[in-house]
Each structure stands twice: as structure tokens, then as C-alpha cells.
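Protocol step 4 of 6: structure prediction from sequence.
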Amino acid sequence: MQKDERNKILVWDFPIRIFHGLFALSLGAALVLGLTSDDHSPLFAWHIFFGIVSGFLLIVRILIGLISKGPASLSELLKSPFKAIAYLKSLVSGKPTQEGGHNPLASLTYLAMFCLLGLVLLTGFNMQSEFAEESHEALALALLATILLHLAGIAFHTIYHKENVALSMATGRKVGPKSQAIPSGRLVLGVAVLAISALFIAQLGQNFEPSSPSLTIPWINAKVSTGEGDGECGDHEEKRDERHHGHHEEDDDD
């Protein structure tokens, strides 16, 4: 395979690259387990586990964005739709603008992904009604569609620009103008992100039991139902069963 000799610049520092790897693994696991396991399956508790990890990492990403400049900053995700339209026009014309970080379409996709994840977590932590359950499932499917769109964008970029853009999240380097290069990889901050994430995951898993009715989120001591019998979801199931039982009794009386 011919080596790409085009000018590559450093655009993704260690904090972003570490976040991206952990986030992809945890969110992927949460979605797969949530869509393939039954509420009463022990695997469903792992869906909750990885969902919480994804939520924690989303907070980490927001904090990284607040203290970063360049491609990793939050402002880079808030590009206007007009820039996305202009980028689409540049693709059609055959003269696409070269971005050091995310192009405008990718930025909007990431923004949608993060917003949808927030809504998925919000509905997942408040499964008190059938409407909440249905909303949670619908939002999860929308999130999955956004992720697939993101992957399709990576494939398109790789073919169209002849650049293995997925590799940039491992190396931190991507083809782009020198003016958009970041000065350093911020290794120390990357180690801090990895250490804090590992500590959170370790504490979350310390008392984790798939058969337990709830899971305590570290540092805020909030309890989340895992979908087993004695938790909030279990209470909801009992109420639903009582309603069904009541309907059957009415039918018998008739």
C-alpha cells in the first residue's frame, strides 16, 4: 500500500483520543446489549452499566471541550447548518474544503449524537411509564442511526479524500492546513482523563451484580434500576400486571 505523503498535522490530542476509544466501546456495548437482551436478562444490567459509563464519558467530553482550543473545542461542534450546506456544495463541485478537525457535516453529526445520548440517558433513568420506555427505545434507535451515519461519513471521507481518517483518532494526525494544527498532544491531561475514567468505571463495578435490582452511580450516590424485580422498573411491571389482572377480573364478572 502506497504511503500517504500529504501534509499531516496534529489535530487530536491524547484526551480526545482516549475519550473517543472509551466512548466508542462503552456506547457500542450499551446499544448492542440494550437492543439484543430482554429486560429480565442478566445482560440487561450490563446495558445499564455501559450506559452509565457512556454518560460519564459524555460529561468528560464536555469538560475537555470547555478547556480546549482548536478542533477539540465545543465551538467546533456548534458549526452552523449553512457551513454544512457550503461543505456539501464544495463536495458536489469537486473542490471540497479541507478541514483539520471535523468537517461541518461531521460536527453536526457529533452534536446530534451527544444530544441524543443525553436524552437516551434521561429517559433511561426515569422509566416510570410506558411512554418513557417507548421514548427511550425510539431515541436509542435514533442514536444508532446517527452512529451509522457517522460511520458512513468516515467511509465516504476515506474513499473520497483517499485518507484513512479513522486512523487519525489513533495517531492524532490528519491531512489539513498547518494553521489548524494544535501545539501539543497534552499527554499529561490524557493520562488524567484515562485515570479518572478508570477510577469511575472501577468504582461503578465494585459493587455491581447483574442480579441486583439497582446500581449505584459513584460520586453522586444515585441509584438506577437495572430492570430486575425489586427496582423501579420492577414496580412498574407489578403495576402493569395489576392492571392486566384487574381487566381479567372485570371480564370474568361480565
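Step 5 (inspection) to follow. The mean pLDDT is 86.
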